[in-house]
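#onboarding

Welcome to the new folks! Below is a worked example of what a typical request in this channel looks like: someone posts a single protein sequence, and someone else replies with the predicted structure as tokens. Don't worry about understanding the tokens yet, we'll cover that in week two.

Example request:
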Amino acid sequence: EYEKEKKELFKKIQDADAILKDTRNEIKSSEGELRALNQQIYTRQRYISNLENEINFLNNDITDLNDMTHALQRDMDTLKAEYSRMVYVTYKLNNNYNTWNFIFTSESYNQLMMRLHYLREFNNVRKSQVIKINQLKEYLEKKKIVIPVSYTHLRAHETDSYLVCRLLLEK
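Example response:
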């Protein structure tokens, strides 16, 4: 009877050893899976960090472009105001009688020449301001087109597997 119990106990010990061995293999396998999952998490965190950096960079570009656009818009408003004042003065001078009166009321030949030169320069400045206003207007329109393209470019790299990353970043 001791012998029988001894064999049963020995068999239980062997079974326990087999279970322990299987458990060790499972633990090693689980540890490997855990390391792989940790590496995957680390890689995705780096990817998210990279996306955050790119978003910050694009946001800074957008902010800079918006600031520049506002500054250029103020410049254009100033140019338009100056131009409107010039148009008003030109309208006043456009009457031939006033223009001739302005020229011929000169006290000397030099003053007459200076007034003619002034009128020519005034006309040239007015034309150049129209050109500047149009160029600035075209430049602003081009800049307004560039801003949405940058965000669209970023979204083009998005895949279904990283949709969660984008949703997290948008919070």
